[in-house]
Write a structure and sequence with these properties.
The structure is a single chain. The chain has about 80 residues and is mainly β. The protein has one domain. The chain is built from no helices and six strands. It starts with a strand and ends in a 5-residue tail after the last strand.
Length: about 80
């Protein structure tokens, strides 16, 4: 396990277009990260993955270039 937070991008839901929010996450292993505790208000914007979720990440192309994005919730049984 590596230390220190990194940024991963999480899709915002209900936006009508693809919108990605940079969030802090802790790298666990390989392409697996845990979304760190941070301010999140589901009434303001809905994230596809929320603080505490463990996610598998991959790259996506955005208007800012290629970024590391949360793509899949990791099952606790994995």
């Amino acid at each position: 396990m590596t230390d220190g937070p990194t940024n991963v991008y999480v899709a915002l839901l209900d936006e009508g277009v693809d919108v990605w929010r940079p969030v802090r996450a802790k790298h666990l292993a390989g392409d697996v990260y845990q979304i760190a505790d941070q301010p999140y208000d589901a009434e303001t914007e809905r994230w596809e993955f929320v603080p505490g979720d463990v996610v598998r990440c991959g790259t996506v192309n955005t208007s800012e270039g290629e970024v590391l994005a949360a793509k899949l919730l990791v099952d606790d049984a994995e």
